[in-house]
Amino acid sequence: MANELAHGPTRAYGGVKRLLYGTATNPLYEQMELENESIADMARSADAQEGIAAFLAKRPPQFSGR
What we know:
Layout: H1 2-6, H2 10-22, H3 28-43, H4 46-57
Helix pairs in contact: 2-3
């Protein structure tokens, strides 16, 4: 499992971890805005483009962490 996580979209994993830490202290409206910004940021990443390309090509993705 560790190997699978290490070769996954690590930048996105980090973003999810940061968002999860904020849920205990951020008001709902602030947390929702942070999630919106994070989703938009991740959608512009090289890993997102690779994930889409791999899906369309029916091949495993090769994530770079960018």
